[in-house]
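ok here's the first one, seq then struct tokens
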Amino acid sequence: MPVAVITGASKGLGRALAGALAARGWDLVLDARGAGALEGTAAALEEAYGVRVVAVAGDVTDAGHRSWLVAAAGELGGVDLLVHNASALGAEPLVPLAGLPVEGLRRALEVNVVAALGLVQEALPWLRRSAVGAVVAVSSDAAVEAYGTWGGYGASKAALDQLAAVLGVEEPGVRVWTVDPGDMATDLYAAAVPDDDAPRPDPAGVVPAFLRLLDDRPASGRHTASALLEGVR
């Protein structure tokens, strides 16, 4: 079976995507900082779909943790798909740049960019050998639009977009896609803007966009979930 490594997989988009891949028969290595929720997710997916799911709790900014994730995938057979979904805002709730703690910005860059590259570097030997090797980096419209208070987070996602674009050029045998999923009802958004209680789509609603990438395997590049979902039933 193909093997996927998904970060930030105990809830929200990461969990929804893990469930969709498990339903297709993928074996999974899942990451999140909270061991309890992550292990619950892994057990539920194993029971529901009969696939192998390994939960590796930890922080993606820890080089040792990243090595353990890839080693766990290697024990399942390799890495065919790497999804960097783990994200940090930099401040909760979000604040204007004038008041953004430098340490918060540093944390956002470490999680959203540095850890993404570190994990890719660990997984590349496997991805290069896979017939379907692919990297998916979850981006944001804040990477390309100037939204007040979203400057630190948006800057980190813009850096992630550029990193992925260059990786796609340097690794022609591996598909590298960044995806802007659009607004979703997630804990991350609630932490970013706690006073905004407007209804938002469930993360499961954008999973078909990610599955379309895996099915169609377009050239490496940046995509929006809304465009990928056009024509998907």
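and now the second one, same deal
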Amino acid sequence: MTVRVLALVGSLRAGSHNRQLAEAAVKHAPGHVSVEIHEGLADIPFYNEDIDVEGSVPAAAADLRAAVAGADALLLVSPEYNGTIPAVLKNAIDWLSRPYGTGAITGKPVAVIGTAFGSYGGVWAQDEARKSAGIAGGAVLEEAKLSVAGSVTRFAETHPGDDTEVATAVLGVLEQLATKANA
């Protein structure tokens, strides 16, 4: 049985190294895992309970919820913006957390990876993403981590998918997600 992993990328920039890291996950997924990158996070309005009404949920938010409901696990790919999680990723987690206790993220295995220019690879943002996803109801894999430092120089001429160390680490994270999803 194939484990379906949905990747949510916290950077909207087309040439984002975090987008490329998600592409590396697609490329290096083991045969029993498929990874799909969710498109459309930019189209989701900020979470507002007034517009989260059955029958009139904004289409982009409904699409996200449906995509997550159809996935076996989530891979959050987060850069670090001013020491924390990007708003677009936090907003997605907020939409997925509702309705409280039964949101699409509830019980889903979640791993967080990312890359950033700094010397710690975005660890603060990734820790915040884990915290937020866990509070939202996700089954966060605290040990499934990948923080790649120095993204601007490390990936200046090499796509993360072509970096042997990154490929090996991404494979390890996906294997952990698959194991948790099959548990």
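notes on #2: The beta strands are 3-9, 33-37, 73-77, 109-115, 139-148. The CA atoms of residues 54 and 76 lie 26 Å apart.
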